[in-house]
Amino acid sequence: MSFTEEYKKRKEEFEEYLRQLTYEFQTLPSELSQAVTYSLLCGGKRLRPVLLLEAVRMFGGEPNGVAVNFALAIECIHTYSLVHDDLPCMDNDDFRRGQLTCHKKFGEALAVLAGDALLNLSHELILGAIDLEDNNRDALIKAGAVIAKAAGGSGMVGGQSRDILTSATERTIDYVYEKKTAALISAALEAGALIGGATAKEAAQLGEFGKIFGFGFQLKDDLLDGENDSQNTYLKLFGKEQTKNALKEHTVAATNILHGVKNSEFLTELTIHFMERTE
Q1: Residues 49, 55: contact at Cβ < 8 Å?
Q2: Which residues in the chain come in under a pLDDT of 50?
Q3: pTM of this structure
Q4: For position 91, which CATH number holds?
Q5: Three-state DSSP string of the chain
């Protein structure tokens, strides 16, 4: 099976978990349920949950109910961030992945609430996973803390605030890419490793890979998006050739880290695939 086929298989498996999760939204007010379901099921690469579940496998763990709960939680966090990013007070986008953004379809107030619901659902999923496990509880608590920190003010939210409030400089762009994009990717890998039974050192090493990979992932997005309305992009500040060079450097650095990580073949292929993607 080729890497593309394997990734598609894993993505589709996760999509099914996601669909099953949305069945639980029937207890919510109908308008909120529709907005949350629409946002979660509007497509995407599902990169973060795939990475988390792969990290679990790499260290001998099983992608069972506990791991799946964490994977669902990290996708809920990512989706909430997109819903809020698209709002008129933030990036003011009308479309995402070829569909109307949540606030364009359901209204601004309901989009804010949908994002709030998704963020809080992530906490429910993580705490529920911890409650299910007796033998590995300390590792799960640490994994939950890693994700929470990456999603908050010292991670993704902090990166978003710097992105919308600060003009482009190299220092600003580095901070935004490291926090807004790479932090949650890194957390998915570090948390998955902890869930799978990795040592703290092994998990941190995989998290470091995630930081470098996540930065490169955003560089590739810059090249695919071209010149857009965002002021804080590496491409806008340094130009196409320098962005390409930076992407190559991050690709090499990320794969070099994996040389010292066991069972990292899938991640190595994933790195090359995403850094060379065309969409």
Answers
A1: no
A2: none
A3: 0.95
A4: 1.10.600.10
A5: CCHHHHHHHHHHHHHHHHHHHHHHHHHCCHHHHHHHHHHHCCCCCCHHHHHHHHHHHHCCCCCCHHHHHHHHHHHHHHHHHHHHHCCCCCCCCCEECCEECHHHHHCHHHHHHHHHHHHHHHHHHHHHHHHHCCCCHHHHHHHHHHHHHHHCCCCHHHHHHHHHHCCCCHHHHHHHHHHHHHHHHHHHHHHHHHHHCCCHHHHHHHHHHHHHHHHHHHHHHHHHHCCCCCCCCHHHHHCHHHHHHHHHHHHHHHHHHHCCCCCCHHHHHHHHHHHCCCC
Indicate the number of domains in the chain.
1
The whole domain housing 131 covers 3-275
Q: What is the pLDDT of residue 163?
A: 87
CA distances from 148 to 8, 89, 142, 265 (A): 28, 24, 10, 28
- The vertex-36 CA angle with 50 and 279, nearest 5°, equals 45
What pLDDT, in 10s, does the model give residues 118-143? 999 999 999 999 998 878 899 999 99
Q: Which amino acid is at 129?
A: A
